[in-house]
Amino acid sequence: MKQYARECILNRKDYIPGKPIEEVQKEFGITDIIKMASNENPMGTSPKAIEAMIEEVKTNSCRYPVSLCTELAGKLAKRLGVAENQIYIDNGGDAVITMYGLTFFNPDDEIVTADTTFPAYENITTKMGATIKKIPLTQGGYFDLPAMLKAVTEKTKTVFICSPNNPTGPITPKKDIIDFLDKVPSSTLVFLDEAYIDFVDNEDCVDSISLLGKYKNLVVMRTFSKVMGLAALRCGYCVADSEIVRAMMKAREPFPVNRIAQAGASAALDDAEFYEKTLANNREAKKYYYDEFDRMGLKYYPSESNFICVDLGADSEEVFNAMLRNGVIIRPLASQGLPTCARITFGLPEENKRTIASLSKALGK
Question: What's the rounded Cα separation, in Å, for the pair 129 and 124?
Answer without folding.
Answer: 9
